[in-house]
Design a protein that fits this description.
The chain is mostly beta strands. It contains no helices and 9 strands. It is globular and about 45 Å long.
Length: 117
């Protein structure tokens, strides 16, 4: 087995400054040159998040805290801590409720791949 040429990365998401996003506030890690695998975001959902979609990347959501709904192409399903959601490219989505979640975009998040309708 060949040894990887990539170096491991470690992030303290709680210490990472948040940025505004259509969902609320996101603390993003692993958005660095040379990483083409995935990024990870700690997201605090706002009261009225915007419906959006991505053409290029898949997202995996994992609910850490709170309860509410996930809206996927207009269909709403309940979510609570421990719920995992896989969102393929092209699916219009948003999360409703006071929720904190981990979001894993694959490949890493690119703001140019955030689309609204």
């Amino acid at each position: 087995m060949a040894k990887s040429t990539q170096k491991p990365l470690i992030a303290d998401l709680e210490a990472t400054p948040p940025v505004e996003c259509p969902c609320g506030q996101a603390r993003r890690a692993f958005l660095v040159p040379g990483n083409s695998a995935a990024s990870i975001h700690l997201v605090d959902i706002k009261i009225d998040p915007e419906v959006h979609y991505h053409e290029q990347h898949t997202e995996i959501y994992y609910v850490l805290e709170g309860e509410g709904l996930i809206e996927l192409d207009g269909e709403k399903s309940p979510v609570k801590p421990g719920t995992a959601i896989l969102i393929p490219p092209g699916v219009r989505h948003r999360t409703l409720g006071r929720i904190r979640l981990l979001n894993v975009p694959i490949p890493p998040f690119d703001p140019a791949d955030e689309h609204f309708y």
